[in-house]
Amino acid sequence: MKEKVIAYIGLGSNLSNPRVQVSTAAKEIAKLSVSNAITLSSLYLSKPMGPQDQDDYINAVIAVETSLSALELLDALQAIENAAGRVRKENRWGARILDCDILLYSDDTIENERLTVPHYGMKLREFVLLPLAEIAPNLHLPDGTSINSLASEINGNGIVKL
After folding, report:
1. d(C-alpha 97, C-alpha 62), whole Å
2. Tens digits of residue pLDDT in 138-155
């Protein structure tokens, strides 16, 4: 069996009772057969990144210990999104029932047609950095950047810890 690694997953929703969507996704991730949930951040209310004519998002970050490969974990997360009713649209920044993004997978750097890790936008997103710093304040990105320093320097953009 493959060695277990720690992965950090960003969760977000702004449709169909977002608090329930994010909480249910965290429970489903915790039930993955070769994974153990380590910790879940608080829920955060944040402004949408894209068009502002959509509801605010509920976001969280979950840390899991898993023996799934990064792509197997991605497949499992997409299955959870699909079960929640996620429909992938061309509008990249539009409203969504559920979004589960692999932010970090151990200290690996991955770049292929399906997955980029560390997540390409995480250094610029308060709704990723603040919950991630909450559960892993001493964490560093593969390039050595401190999550805590990124979180302390980012504009909060009106984010609210719930």
Report:
1. 18
2. 999 999 999 999 999 999
Rounded to whole angstroms, the Cα distance separating 16 from 38 reads 27
Regarding the domain delimited by 5-161, which CATH topology (the fold level of the hierarchy) does it fall under? Alpha-Beta Plaits (3.30.70)
Q: Which residues are catalytic?
A: 86, 96, 99, 101
Task: Report how far residue 93's alpha carbon sits from residue 37's, in angstroms, rounded to the nearest whole number.
Answer: 28
Distance, in Å, from the CA atom of 162 to the CA atom of 157, rounded to the nearest integer, reads: 15
End-to-end C-alpha distance for the chain, whole angstroms: 39
* Collapsed DSSP state (helix, strand, coil) of residue 20: helix
User: What length does the chain have?
Assistant: 162
The tens digit of pLDDT for each residue in 72-98 reads: 999 999 999 988 876 666 556 667 889
Q: Kindly tell me if the per-residue pLDDT of 126 is higher than 70.
A: yes
